[in-house]
Design a protein that fits this description.
- This protein is mainly beta.
- The protein has one domain (4-128).
- The protein is 9% helix and 29% strand.
- It is built from one helix and eight strands, in the order H-E-E-E-E-E-E-E-E.
- It has one helix at 4-15; strands spanning 28-32, 56-57, 68-70, 75-76, 85-93, 101-113, 120-121, 127-129.
- A four-stranded antiparallel β-sheet has the order 2-1-5-6. Strands 3-8 form a two-stranded antiparallel sheet. Strands 4-7 form a two-stranded antiparallel ribbon.
- It is globular and about 45 Å long.
- The relative contact order is 0.25.
């Protein structure tokens, strides 16, 4: 699911009606225990204060195929140095900290991230696509 911010950013840049801000040059994967909203709110990431949590650069996306890109390699979170709680969504931001929420997806299986845990996304598990509406 894309946020309204990202949809407007894409449309403005592609059609030349609003090119500032420009499309991001980097994307970062994070985790959320709560459901994000299309307005960019609702994300609850684990604390970054001594827990080992940080957003990870996504630099292994495939070329688009039918409007969709996927991770071509394994993407793994850092090892947790504390209990992060139950993670239910992956979130994609335009910055490693702060920044704007661009997209999010519910995990196929929620995951309890206890001390010394690592979440691994196998190739193809991170999927971001723009699709045509069906009638």
């Amino acid at each position: 699911m894309f946020t309204t911010y990202f949809l407007n950013l894409i449309a403005g840049n592609v059609f030349g009606t609003k090119k500032s801000p420009a499309l991001p040059s980097a994307y970062y994967l994070g985790l959320s225990s709560t459901a994000p909203n299309v307005d960019g709110s609702g994300v609850t990431e684990p604390s970054t204060n001594g827990t080992g949590y940080e957003r990870i650069p996504i630099d292994c996306l495939t070329v688009p195929n039918n409007g969709k890109v996927e991770n071509s390699e394994i993407v793994a979170t850092p090892e947790s140095l504390a209990d992060w709680g139950v993670m239910r969504y992956y979130v994609i931001f335009d910055s490693q900290s702060g920044g704007n929420l661009l997209a999010y997806q519910q995990l196929s299986n929620e995951r309890t991230m206890e001390l010394n845990s690592v979440m691994i996304f196998k190739a193809g598990e991170i999927s971001i696509g723009i699709e045509n509406e069906t009638a």
